[in-house]
Amino acid sequence: MLNLVQRVSKSRNAVTLRGFSTSSQTLLGQNLTEKIVQRYAVGLPDGKEVHSGDYVSVKPRHCMTHDNTWPVALKFKGLGASKIKDNRQVVMTLDHDVQNKTEKNLTKYKNIENFAKEHGVDFYPAGRGIGHQIMIEEGYAFPNSVVVASDSHSNTYGGLGTLGTPIVRTDAASIWATGQTWWQIPPVAKVELKGRLPKGVTGKDVIVSLCGIFNNDEVLNHAIEFTGEHIEELPIDYRLTIANMTTEWGALSGLFPVDNTLIEWYENRLKKVGPNHPRINEKTLQDLKNNLTKADSDSYYAKTLTIDLSTLSPFISGPNSVKVSTSLTDLSNKNMKVNKAYLVSCTNSRLSDIKAAADIIRGHKVAPGVQFYVAAASSNVQKDAEASGAWKDIMDAGAIALPAGCGPCIGLGTGLLEPGEVGISATNRNFKGRMGSKDALAFLASPEVVAASAILGKIGSPEEVLGQKVKETSEVSKSITINKKPEAAGDAAASSASGVEVLEGFPKRITGELVLCDADNINTDGIYPGKYTYQDDVPREKMAEVCMENYDSEFGAKTHAGDIVISGYNFGTGSSREQAATAILARDMKLIVAGSFGNIFSRNSINNALLTLEIPDLINKLREKYSGSEKELTRRTGWFLTWDVSSAEVTVTEGQDGPVVLKQKVGELGSNLQDIIVKGGLEGWVKAELTKA
Question: Which CATH architecture has domain 316-466?
Answer without folding.
Answer: 2-Layer Sandwich (3.30)
